[in-house]
Amino acid sequence: MFDNVWLIPLFPLIGFLINGFFGKKIKNEAVIGGIGTLMIFLSFIVSCGILMQMIGLPAEQRVFEKVVFPWIHSGNLKVDMAFLLDPLSCVMIMVVTGVGTLIHLYSIGYMHGEEGFYRFFAYLNLFCMSMLLLVLGNNMLVMFIGWEGVGLCSYLLIGYYFHKKSAGDAAKKAFVMNRVGDFGFLIGMFTLFWWFGSNHNIWTINFTEIKAASHLLPYGGVVTVATLCFFLGATGKSAQLPLYTWLPDAMEGPTPVSALIHAATMVTAGVYMIGRMSFVFIKSPETMMVVAVIGAATAIFAATIGTAQNDIKRVLAYSTVSQLGFMFLAMGVGAFTAGIFHLMTHAFFKACLFLGSGSVIHSMHHALHHAHSHDDAQDMRNMGGLKSAMPITFITFLVSTIAIAGIPGFSGFFSKDEILWQAFSNPFHGQLNMVLWGVGAIAACFTAFYMFRLVFMTFFGECRITPKAKGHLHESPLVITIPLMVLGLLAVVGGYIGLPKLIGDMLGGIPNYFEHWLEPVFAQAHEYSTQYAHAGGHHSHSLEWGLMGLSVVIALIGITIAFTLYIKNTELPGKFTATFPALHRAVYNKWYMDELYDFAIVNPCKALGRFLWKGFDVVVIDGIVNGVANVVLGFSGIFRFIQSGLIGNYAWSMAFGVVVILGYYVFK
Amino acid sequence: MSIPILSILVFLPLAGCLLLLPAWNCRRLARPIALVVALTELTLALWLYASWKGLAVNPFPQGFLLLEDAPWIPAFGIRYTLALDGISLLMIMLTAIVFCVGLAVSWDSIKERTSLFLSMMLVMEAGIMGVFLALDLALFYLFWEMMLIPMFFLIGIWGHGRRLYSTLKFFLFTMSGSLLMLLAIIALHLLYAQQTGVSSFQLQELLKVQLPLETQLWLYAAFFLAFAIKFPLFPLHTWLPDAHTDAPTAGSVILAGLLLKTGSYALIRFGYPLFPQAAQMMTPLFYSLALIGIFYASLVAFAQQDMKRLIAYSSIGHMGYVAIGIAAWQPVALSGAIIQMANHGVTTAALFCMVGMLDERAHTREIAAFGGLWGKLPLWSFFFLLFAVTAMGVPGLNNFVGEFLILAGTIKSSPLVAVLAFCGIVFPLIYMVRLVQEVVFQKERQPLSLNDLNPREIGILAILALLDIWMGIHPAPLLEMLHVPVQLLTGGTP
């Protein structure tokens, strides 16, 4: 099965080619959607086969590399198109193809009747191929193909409704900000490449080879430079401070795109990348600290903005940014397994939330359309009381909300609690640990608050759309609700493969399967970390229990506030905004980050471009040139008789001139 | 090999001009003749490519695969020396392809003086082939001028807008550069004669001249200026946007696809080997001009309203990367620069073709006139998107391979330059995305009734697109071809 790994990205590529070139002629939505879904499902089957085979192997043999063909060979630089299978890439391909299949299926229903249906599925397949290349690449450059490829597909899919200017602008923004990060990725890659090459004559950008040679890397120094560059790449792709502003705007794309690309897969690429290179990152304590701080800062920053948004998808977008912050926090405190675990559980519950919001929007749109109302179908202020009309959507949505809020027993609790505990107890950051934990805990409180605010505003209370439209509200068809149910189920049970040791012991020694599974991948990093980590890390069980309890209490506080504000005393939020108008404006306007970017970067660049062209190119350089030319033209007027316009004459006079000059030099 | 294939490559297009004479007034006959000649050239070039591994590597001149050498003007020691190595082979293939594209794309659009146009094209092809093959500097200079004059007429006769101004500007710029180069060639020749008592213009001979550093600097400066104008490097670039904007489509395709490459090619072939210390000393200047060019051209491209002008400025920016790759003078970066010359040639030629096709339909190239073409011209939009994405340097497509290698090599020799140049890779994305956004996507701004691409145009673009993809996914054979000459040039062992 391992040998067939190249099939995994190949199937979606075939789907892309079929739908891209013939989709327009096929026309039949069932066939187009069927092909798209089938292709990614086939990849899922192959991935399952690979997972099964890998489970059957002893832990130390779970690494496999497959070279498909040589790609760029120049001088010392030898890069092959090659894939790497190990427990980490296995987790990723399972998430990408599994969640991917469900979202493809969902899209058949959601995108029904859209103009360019085939285009959507072609892009979606192309995206899956790129994402699979990203997670399967055995060297940084193949990863980078995927890295840029997903950026491109994201651009195409955000801009899917290309007639809308806002969609186009959002797509552009996403692409450009991603590219800013990519620049960091490339520099990081080259720094490592030349460092190994010139110092140890090891010329490679291959992950396994770098891992094998990673003991040669110093702590800090060049590694800090390289990893900070890589991390810049991660902030672009995974929407962290300061490059996060594209993600909320990316909600202009169709909802399945938000679920697949901007929640479950692409935006987690940065987290995956750090995991893949954990043995390099761990060697720079400085970078680890930066990653942890940026992660925590993003988690709380985005969470605050999430509390004041009224667009259902925007709330989820900020939530995604915030949850990604949690994952980076985990990476930064050396809890790689916890980070990847949260990546996986987040993929389940956030995909479910996005798809659920899509189901709501779908229904709202339908109802408003029938009532000839022009209200915004995504604005939560127009919703309310949808739970009776859409029971399946409501239940799956609620389950996922509980999961993300961190209520015990649901998947999000296990992963998020693990991250908070590691932030508190890790042996790397000393006094900073308390701050990291505190910020994380407050962000978790905000998360519970804004998610339940969303649920209460959408599904509870009075229905705020016109009675005429209300009658048209209905549950979505099965093709939409089946993926919701599957993902909702995973949002509940997905966490049990990674039970914290504390709980596992209590339940009679259930091991943390997930941690064991990823152990060989991160073993190297943990070994390096012991070199400089101070001997902390021995915390009592009672402390761990206490913090776990505290994080549950925090989540409950968030939920209670949401309940008070949006169910019990619905006039309170209005009063609050009236009392603190400036604060509300700032939060509602996303702390004016977009305006800041426009002011500091975008507008100056535009103005400079115009100036250089009109001011410098045309006036200065051409001024000089034309001045010279005019003098020449003046002379040429005198010699006009030479300018006969016949090529022969020109050629002859030139040849003559050459001969004269040559003659002068030779015979002088 | 007994067949003088290099001479055939150079002189076949000229023979094609003679073939055109009987059909001078018959457009229907003249066009196929010219195309057949161009296709024959392409076949020869591909045949060379298919068989280059079987060719023995010549001991003299080192690293070359084929050599055709005969005395020409013995009085001055001028020889007729044509030679082929991996670098020139890549350039020959590019030339052959771009000319086929140039002829095919102007199949219908050149309606006046068609035969004159075709013969100009063929003369230019002969000249460019010669430039890429000549190893005798006098011969090289002859070809160098030979490709210039037809372009002058191409813009002057079949161009649009301020074509006379543009063509004159182009001519003056390039002419002044090449005159300086001519002086330097002659001076070099004389110095050689002084030192050895023999007169020669042959590169391999002239390499033996011992030059004091000061002389080297002066001579190199003259060469550099001529090549920098062709590149074009900032601030010698202003002829390019004008020439492109006013040139007919075929003119733009050849200008961007080939003429710009002659400058970089000549710098690699003659400039650096002849004046190594001087080149070394001028590297900081070269780097700075290239870097300024990248940022400057990109920013200006961002402000353009005319599609063709935007692509012209983007060309300056992309060639800045080639310049950086050469300035690094390091095997990986140099391979990257050479492969990037081919990549840029294909991609930019395609973009100019596409703008030309749009211009023929809508009679305007203003970005503001379009919008929402995806709905109206799906095929055109598809290809445009593909080529724009290529120009942005997305991996898996060819431009990425070149940029990647250039930066991979440069970061070794001068990290600061490489990092600055890396910053620059954001720009092509910004202005190309803007272009795509405003032309292909969004709502249509003016009701235009346009027909989508016809089979001829699809054929041209499909071939270029396949080349882009093929060179992006599987550049290994081309890189292998460049390996020996690049190693020899940079002083390594092949």
UniProtKB/TrEMBL annotation, chain A:
Report the Pfam families cross-referenced here. Answer: Proton_antipo_M, Proton_antipo_N
Tell me which residues make up the NADH:quinone oxidoreductase/Mrp antiporter transmembrane domain. Answer: 138-426
List where the protein spans the membrane. Answer: 6-23, 30-55, 81-105, 117-136, 142-162, 174-196, 216-236, 287-308, 315-341, 389-414, 434-456, 477-499, 545-567, 616-638, 650-667
Against InterPro entries, the record matches this protein to: NADHpl_OxRdtase_5_subgr, ND/Mrp_TM, NU5C-like, Proton_antipo_N
* Stretches assigned to the NADH-Ubiquinone oxidoreductase (complex I) chain 5 N-terminal domain: 71-121
Top-level taxon of the source organism: Bacteria
Q: Which UniProt keywords apply?
A: Membrane, Transmembrane, Transmembrane helix
Which compartments does it reside in? Endomembrane system; Membrane
Bilayer disposition of the protein = Multi-pass membrane protein
What PANTHER family is this protein classified in?
NADH-UBIQUINONE OXIDOREDUCTASE CHAIN 5
The protein depicted here goes by the name NADH-quinone oxidoreductase subunit L
Organism, by scientific name, is: Pelotalea chapellei
The gene from which this protein is expressed is: nuoL
Automatic annotation (TrEMBL), chain B:
Membrane topology field: Multi-pass membrane protein
The answer on whether this UniProt entry bears the keyword Zinc reads no
- Keyword annotations from UniProtKB, A to Z: Membrane, Transmembrane, Transmembrane helix
In this chain the NADH:quinone oxidoreductase/Mrp antiporter transmembrane domain maps to 134-427
Q: Where in the cell is it found?
A: Endomembrane system; Membrane
Q: Which InterPro entries match?
A: NADH_Q_OxRdtase_chainM/4, NADH_UbQ_OxRdtase, ND/Mrp_TM
Pfam families this protein is in? Proton_antipo_M
Source superkingdom:
Bacteria
Q: What stretches pass through the bilayer?
A: 6-26, 33-52, 72-105, 117-135, 141-158, 170-192, 217-240, 252-272, 284-303, 310-332, 338-358, 379-397, 417-437
Q: Which residues form a coiled coil?
A: none
Name the protein family: Belongs to the complex I subunit 4 family.
Task: Return the protein name.
Answer: NADH-quinone oxidoreductase subunit M
Q: Origin organism of this chain?
A: Pelotalea chapellei
Give the taxonomic lineage as stored in the record. Bacteria, Pseudomonadati, Thermodesulfobacteriota, Desulfuromonadia, Geobacterales
